[in-house]
């Protein structure tokens, strides 16, 4: 959070992060339930696609938070991650249901996203509430990405790649291939940023 926030801004951010944590927690619990009950995996797309799409779309306001100084998040990194996820939920998951619903990459992606964001938003809730962040929560916030980023990014890439094989538009396919090419440098940038944040935060 930003160093000088009004009570109204803190209250808004507290509510926003609490709601986001609960939304992602619900998605996480649904994914975990489906994993333990393999019969429900084929229906996971129908059960979660709208909620995952709108929950992720809600995060677009975080770009405004960063751009206006409401939070200290870097604008470019915030935009990059949220834009990539927004493209994923709207242009891939929603637009190509046959590709998404039939792939194990979809629940894998939701698992990585939901556990990371449940922890991240919970971390900010504790901070905004003025409480001491438990050591375990801080460690999870700055460590889970080491395993979850590769899972989420690989799943996103694969679903987009599969979409290129079923689209009838050469223009759409070309756009997708362009984005696929950006995954490598973009992933390295985000991973490096989080590693720096991890060293800086956990060293305190």
Note down, in words, how this protein is organized.
The protein is built from nine helices and no strands. It is mainly α and 204 residues long. It has one domain. Helix 3 packs antiparallel against helix 4 (75-94), helix 6 (105-128) crosses helix 7 (135-141) and helix 8 (145-164) runs antiparallel to helix 9. The relative contact order is 0.12. Belongs to the very long-chain fatty acids dehydratase HACD family. Keywords: Endoplasmic reticulum, Fatty acid biosynthesis, Fatty acid metabolism, Lipid biosynthesis, Lipid metabolism, Lyase, Membrane, Transmembrane, Transmembrane helix. It comes from Aspergillus mulundensis. Its EC number is 4.2.1.134.
Task: Outline the fold blueprint.
Blueprint: H1 7-36, H2 44-58, H3 61-67, H4 75-94, H5 97-101, H6 105-128, H7 135-141, H8 145-164, H9 170-202
Enzyme class: lyase
Pathway: Lipid metabolism; fatty acid biosynthesis
InterPro entries: Tyr_Pase-like_PTPLA
Summed up, the domain count is 1
Shape descriptor reads globular
Q: Helix count, per DSSP?
A: 9
Kindly, what is the distance between the CA atoms of the first and last residues, rounded to a whole number of angstroms?
A: 17 Å
Strand content: under 5%
Weakly predicted, low-confidence segments: none
Biggest β-sheet strands, sense, barrel: none
Radius of gyration: 17 Å
How much helix, percentage-wise, in residues?
over 70%
Mean pLDDT: 95
| Number of DSSP strand runs | 0
